[in-house]
Amino acid sequence: xxxxxxxxxxxxxLIAAGALFVANHSGGKDSQVQLIRLLERVPASQIVVVHAxxxxxxxxxAMELARDQAAAAGLPFIVAxxxxxxxxxxxxxxxxxxxVPSWPSASTRxxxxxxxxxxxxxxVRKFAKANGFKVIVNCLGLRAQESPGRAKRxxxxxxxxxxxxHTWYEWLPVHDLSATEVFGIIExxxxxxxxxxxxxxxRLSCVFCIMASKEDLRTGASHNPDLLQQYDALxxxxxxxxxxxxxxxxxxxx
Length: 254
Ligand code: SF4
Prior knowledge:
Blueprint: H1 7-16, E1 20-24, H2 29-41, E2 47-53, H3 62-72, E3 77-81, H4 86-96, H5 110-131, E4 135-139, H6 148-152, E5 156-158, E6 167-171, H7 179-188, H8 195-199, H9 214-223, H10 225-238, H11 249-252
Parallel strand pairs: 1-2, 1-4, 2-3, 4-6
Antiparallel strand pairs: 5-6
Helix pairs in contact: 2-7, 4-10
The structure holds iron/sulfur cluster.
Iron/sulfur cluster binds next to helix 5.
């Protein structure tokens, strides 16, 4: 396939070539806007929406938001689940190697790779094979303003997981947007963002993320007290803290 140079031209070439566009959808505002943007450009027959389920660890309603947005647009929707939950992953790591920190860290995010990326790629491969797609454009709702790391990410590029069966590209369709613009686009589309934002959350995925702000942890704790107890019990059992600050979750969320 001949690929043109600018991201816009490259995406247009891939649309024309019949590539499959995968909308990774966490249920968060950026995923929601990404899907709104994709639908403005890509035929529905070339889009699939995938949600990596984190089970009880994620905000209630996140999966449902992704599912309902996909259904409203008539798009196929896949839930990708790992064989273990985040807390099970921590327990197994502690059982196998109690001398090293049991929780994922910001630099080696096994939670993202094992619970999200891996299951999503497995499900997308299956879907692409069943539906005859050879070229996959993996779309992520990451924004440059979220962090210096995300600002450095290329808006478009070939992925290293490409092989003789599938060629994978990564595209960040909302990389250039601000949070204010994101909420504005959701409103203009006549949609509602997940309710956790109205409660005060800045970001949405796991209720208690290893990288979350204190405010998000506080909101998560006050609306999910049972889950907080489970995290607290596991922190105490392993002797390691969940959050990258190394401060116990109950203190951070107090
Ligand atoms: S939201 Fe945070 S804790 Fe949850 S999988 Fe992603 S990085 Fe890990």
